[in-house]
Write the C-alpha cells for this entry.
Amino acid sequence: MKAPRQKPKAGLGLYALPTPVNTAVRSKRILMGTPTLGQIRMEWHNALAGMIVPCNWSMASITPLGFLVADGQNLCVYEAIKQGFEWLFLLEDDVIPPPDFALRLADYLNSGDTPIVSGLYHLRGSNPREPLMYRGRGNGAFTGWKPGEKVWCDGVPTGALLVHLSIFKELAKIRPEYAIVSGGQTVKMPQYFETPRESFIDAQSGAYMKLVGTSDLYFCDMVMNHQILQKAGWGKIGRRKYPFLVDTRIACGHIDRETGAVW
C-alpha cells in the first residue's frame, strides 16, 4: 500500500506561487539626459549599446531634441526633479563613454558621498590633448595628474557629468524662472544652466564688444559662489578649494561629428 502523498508546505514545491511583483514600482535613482539636435555618430550609439550593465541596474533616459545645450540641460533637470530621481547624469551626444562607465557611476550612487563627478575627456582638435578640467580661471587646463587618479577641480565640463539632485533643488531657490516651449507646451522652470553673454562698448575704441562663455564653467561658478554644496548638505566637500571630482577612470572620447576623429 502506497503512503499518501503529502502536500508541500506553503510557498514550496509544486504548490508554490510566485511572489507578486508590483510592476508600477521602478527604481528612480538615476536619469541620463542628452540634449541633442538629432544627428549623432554611429560610434556614440555603439558605445551606449555596448556598455557593461551592472546587475539589477536601472537607468532611465531623456533626450531633449532641437534645443540649445543649456536649454536642453534645463529640461533634463526639470524632468529629473519632476519624476523624483535622485541623480542626473548629463551625457552630451559628442562624448563617447567607456564600456564600464555605468559600473563607475554605480560606485558613486552606492557610496553617496560625492555630489558632482565628471568623466575625463579632452578638447577637440588639441595636440597634445588638452584635458577639460580646471583649477582656477584664465590659466588653462590642469595637467598635474596621472591616468586612473581622482582629481579635484573647480571647473568641470557637463559632457559626462553626474550630479545629485539636491544641488539643483538648492539652485532653484536662487535662479530666475524662464519658459521653454517643449512638445507644443510652455514649460516654466528655474534656469539652472545658462550660456553667459555680455555686451559692452569699449571705452577706448568705442567699439561694440560681446563676450560669450560656456554653461559648464558658469554652472561651476554659481555652485561655488552661492555655497550651494554647503546649503544642500555637502558641507565638507563645499569647503574644499576644489569641490568637483574628475574620475579619470571614466575616460571618454570627444568625437568630431563631421570626421569621426576622436580626442
About this structure: The chain has one domain: 27-254.
